[in-house]
Specification:
This protein is of the alpha/beta class. The protein folds into two domains: 5-248, P-loop containing nucleotide triphosphate hydrolases (Rossmann fold); 253-279, no CATH class. Helix content is 30%, strand content 16%. The protein has eight helices and twelve strands. It has helices spanning 22-35, 52-56, 98-111, 130-138, 152-167, 199-205, 218-226, 238-246, and strands spanning 5-7, 10-14, 40-44, 72-73, 79-81, 115-117, 119-123, 143-148, 172-177, 182-183, 190-191, 210-213. The strands form three sheets. It has an eight-stranded mixed sheet with strand order 4-5-3-7-2-8-9-12, sandwiched between helices. A two-stranded parallel sheet has the order 1-6. Helix 3 (98-111) runs parallel beside helix 4 (130-138). It is globular.
């Protein structure tokens, strides 16, 4: 990270599969934290499916030069960076291979002038591919929030994400079940559109204490489409945000590039890319 940036806490927001509302949850977590008075940022690491600028109604492009990039700032002061803030046409597909995608994420972390940030949320791509590994290995992650939906199939995939986090020595600090139920505006009854929830079972199995269950809310969907996510009621995530603010990962690294496997620490005799970057 450059000397013009100081990010105190980094929280990754992940999902085992797409379509569960991970990006909207990331946005709402940031909005909630900003409302609490903390300096908040979002790093959109979902390079091939970026949603953050759309949710916040950000149409301006990120400015910069060959050494640094300035983040795009939302109406309430949330600093963001996304590939869509750099593309000339936001509908252009990002048809890049894994190493290139991973390099963009590292550039977002190292080259963006973030300034002083209390907490950064990283909107990660679904699954456990190259970009997710890059985030785990290149960013000093304090904790993960996993976003899921009620279906049993999704629950199985969540367990894969939990186990991956354990392998990477990153604590899962919270589970958010999105689209948990639909509350009828006429009778007030809650309907389980996608079936019964399994999130409490998973939380108990892996000793995850913070769980949030959010309803299907058409107003949130409309707000994301209109770029007005900062206007929605995000009180359902207050508990998750409190947990994020307290998160500490004793195993997190310093955010510097990791040395190659088998590195002996003697940079003068090593020609591997990235090895000497620690010196």
């Amino acid at each position: 990270m450059n000397n013009q940036s100081n990010v105190k806490k980094v929280i990754g927001v992940v999902s085992g599969k797409g379509g569960v509302g991970k990006s909207s949850i990331t946005s709402m977590l940031a909005v909630t934290t900003q409302r609490m008075g903390y300096k908040t940022a979002i790093l959109d690491a979902d390079i091939t499916g970026p949603s953050i600028p759309k949710a916040f109604g950000l149409t301006q492009k990120a400015m910069g030069n060959d050494k640094e990039i300035l983040p795009v700032i939302s109406d309430t002061g949330i600093k963001t960076i996304s590939i869509n803030s750099l593309l000339e046409d936001i509908t252009d597909p990002v048809v890049w291979r894994g190493p290139v995608l991973s390099g963009v994420v590292e550039q977002f972390w190292n080259d963006v002038v973030w300034g002083d940030i209390d907490i950064m949320f990283v909107d990660m791509p679904p699954g456990t591919g190259d970009v997710a590994l890059t985030v785990f290995q290149s960013l000093p992650i304090d904790g993960l929030v996993i976003v899921t939906a009620p279906q049993e199939l999704v629950s199985m995939i969540v367990e894969k994400a939990v186990k991956m986090a354990d392998l990477m020595k990153v604590p899962v600090i919270g589970l958010v079940e999105n689209m948990s139920y639909f509350k009828c505006p006429d009778c007030g009854k809650e309907h389980k559109i996608f079936g019964e929830s399994h999130i409490d079972e998973i939380a108990g199995k892996y000793s995850i204490k913070t769980v949030a269950k959010l309803p299907i809310d058409t107003e949130i969907a409309k707000s994301c489409d209109r770029g007005m996510i900062e206007c929605v009621d995000t009180s359902g995530l207050d508990g998750v945000v409190e947990t994020c603010l307290k998160a500490e990962n004793p195993n997190k690294h310093d955010g510097m590039p990791q040395p190659p496997e088998g590195c002996n620490g003697n940079c003068s005799s090593c020609g591997a890319d990235g090895c000497a970057s620690r010196k």
